[in-house]
């Protein structure tokens, strides 16, 4: 695979754009050629199709507006370019030599339906809200594309309306590639809800090789707080990305949902890390859809998320798990007298599970005979599939499921784009796993094949029985 989208390094990519204002057509063409299509990879396209997910691809740019300074406003500023943009415009920040755009007059509000923002690199430029308001507020109903930039320090508060997305808010879709978003706070008051601490989309969210961290959705009154990191009204796609250490918090006693992600509609989580997120309910991910939209989680790690109820992941609709590791999530509430609640995964309807580890998830309200509470489900639910290791199945698991401790090492950088758990080989994986989706790589992405020559596919998000040298010294 040669697309820039899946590069392992995080250095800025060179984008040779024309800078002369008299050559906007040439610059627009260069932007289109240099920008990686978010649908380039054939295996990702096929998995998205099977998962019922529509991948978002950049539209052809109509024109390229060149941002020439890091001022808050005025000619040559990002604010000026976005406010003047029309549909299919591309806004180019790659020529900037400054490292920070500080917004001192509030969020940049713009209305073009489809608009793209091209940065010089996530480590090269930060769009900084200064905790004085939102950052990017897209009123359009198309797709807002943001690439190769960091966004942070957004703060939105409204006591009189529902509010969402302090760093990125869109009336349509949000597509992020090679973007870091952090320290974003969305706060509501009264009876209104806070939705999406960092990013809110009225339609879909797609993140590719990006990170959403250290953000919060907070309801100060009696409204709901949902999606500490991301809130998508109509589905989410996460590819080789990290959603970590986000919080959904309801101060008024109303439950909060989805510390990391809250998503309605079809969803695909691939090669991603969802870790350290918190909410009252559904600490890591809340897949909440009442129309039966399918959800697929593949080659991913759900770890260290915390909630009173459902620490790791909750799925109201059909959930398919392939080659995942779901571990070390914690919760406190064991039962409401009728239903039982796992710390790892809770499902409402039947799903599919193959070559997945669910282990060491702890509910400290459970009886002492259950040292781990990894999986529960409503009556009639359970998983089809095979080649899994689930330490405690509180809902039907496939018949060949083993129930051993896989000896997972701490979440760490073992190479690739996201952190993983290294398991200890043992009786739990005697018969190996499968690769039903035909994924070319494990969670870490290119350079880390799911199945090397002479190897068999393994259980969990990490393929350890290969000749790859891990960053932390394991072999």
Report what the structure shows.
Helix content is 6%, strand content 33%. The protein is globular. The strands form 5 sheets. The chain has a 23-stranded parallel sheet that branches. Strands 4-7-10-13-18-23-27-31-35-39-42 form an 11-stranded parallel sheet, covered by helices on one side. It has 3 helices and 42 strands. It is mainly beta and 475 residues long. The N terminus and C terminus are likely disordered. Strand 1, helix 3 and strand 2 form a beta-alpha-beta unit.
Defining traits:
475 residues, 11-stranded parallel β-sheet, 42 strands, disordered C terminus, 23-stranded parallel β-sheet, mainly beta
* Helical amount: under 10%
Number of helices in the DSSP assignment: 3
- In total, the number of strands is 42
Structural class: mainly beta
Low-confidence runs of at least 5 consecutive residues: 1-39, 469-475
**CA radius of gyration:** 22 Å
Distance between the termini: 24 Å
Name the average pLDDT.
Answer: 88
What multimeric state do the chains show?
single chain
Q: What characteristic shape results from the CA principal axes?
A: globular
Q: Strand portion, in percent?
A: 25-35%
Please outline the helices and strands.
Blueprint: H1 24-34, H2 42-51, E1 63-66, H3 78-84, E2 89-92, E3 100-102, E4 108-110, E5 115-118, E6 126-128, E7 136-138, E8 143-158, E9 163-164, E10 168-170, E11 173-188, E12 194-195, E13 199-201, E14 205-208, E15 211-213, E16 216-219, E17 225-226, E18 230-232, E19 236-239, E20 242-244, E21 247-250, E22 256-257, E23 261-263, E24 267-270, E25 273-275, E26 278-281, E27 285-287, E28 295-298, E29 301-303, E30 306-309, E31 313-315, E32 319-322, E33 325-327, E34 330-331, E35 345-347, E36 351-354, E37 357-359, E38 362-363, E39 375-377, E40 383-386, E41 389-390, E42 393-394
Parallel strand pairs: 1-2, 2-5, 3-6, 4-7, 5-8, 6-8, 7-10, 8-11, 9-12, 10-13, 11-14, 11-15, 11-16, 12-17, 13-18, 14-19, 15-20, 16-21, 17-22, 18-23, 19-24, 20-25, 23-27, 24-28, 25-29, 26-30, 27-31, 28-32, 29-33, 31-35, 32-36, 33-37, 34-38, 35-39, 36-40, 37-41, 39-42
């Amino acid at each position: 695979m040669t697309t820039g989208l899946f590069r392992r390094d995080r250095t800025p990519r060179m984008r040779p754009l024309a800078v002369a204002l008299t050559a906007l057509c040439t610059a627009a063409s260069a932007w289109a050629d240099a920008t990686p299509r978010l649908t380039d990879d054939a295996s990702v396209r096929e998995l998205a199709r099977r998962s019922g997910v529509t991948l978002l691809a950049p539209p052809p740019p109509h024109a390229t507006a060149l941002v020439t300074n890091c001022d808050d406003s005025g000619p040559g500023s990002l604010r000026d370019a976005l406010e003047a943009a029309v549909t299919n415009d591309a806004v180019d920040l790659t020529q900037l030599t400054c490292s920070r755009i500080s917004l001192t007059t509030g969020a940049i509000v713009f209305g073009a339906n489809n608009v793209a923002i091209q940065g010089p690199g996530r480590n090269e430029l930060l769009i900084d809200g200064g905790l004085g308001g939102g950052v990017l507020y897209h009123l359009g109903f198309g797709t807002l594309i943001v690439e190769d930039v960091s966004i942070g320090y957004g703060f939105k508060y409204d006591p009189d309306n529902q509010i969402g997305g302090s760093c990125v808010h869109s009336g349509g879709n949000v597509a992020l590639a090679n973007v870091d978003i952090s320290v974003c706070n969305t706060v509501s008051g009264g009876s209104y809800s806070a939705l999406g601490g960092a990013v809110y989309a009225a339609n879909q969210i797609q993140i590719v090789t990006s990170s959403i961290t250290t953000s919060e959705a907070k309801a100060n009154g009696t409204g709901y707080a949902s999606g500490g990191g991301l809130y998508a009204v109509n589905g989410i796609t996460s590819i080789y990305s990290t959603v970590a250490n986000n919080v959904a918090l309801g101060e008024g006693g109303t439950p909060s949902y989805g510390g990391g992600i809250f998503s309605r509609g079809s969803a695909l989580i691939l090669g991603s890390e969802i870790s350290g997120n918190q909410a009252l309910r559904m600490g890591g991910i809340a897949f909440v859809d009442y129309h039966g939209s399918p959800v697929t989680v593949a080659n991913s790690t759900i770890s260290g998320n915390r909630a009173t109820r459902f620490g790791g992941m909750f799925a109201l609709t059909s959930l398919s798990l392939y080659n995942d590791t779901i571990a070390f999530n914690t919760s406190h509430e064991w039962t409401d007298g009728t239903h039982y609640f796992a710390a790892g995964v809770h499902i409402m309807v039947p799903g599919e599970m193959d070559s997945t580890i669910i282990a060491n998830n702890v509910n400290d309200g459970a009886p002492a005979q259950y040292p781990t509470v990894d999986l529960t489900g409503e009556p009639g639910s359970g998983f089809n599939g095979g080649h899994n290791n689930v330490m405690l199945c509180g809902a039907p698991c496939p018949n060949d499921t083993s129930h051993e401790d896989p000896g997972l090492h701490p979440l760490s950088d073992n190479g690739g784009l996201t952190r993983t758990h290294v398991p200890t080989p043992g009786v739990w994986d005697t018969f190996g796993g499968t690769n039903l989706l035909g994924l070319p790589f494990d969670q870490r992405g290119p350079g880390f094949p799911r199945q090397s020559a002479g190897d068999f596919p393994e259980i969990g998000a990490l393929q350890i029985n290969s000749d790859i040298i891990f960053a932390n010294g394991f072999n």
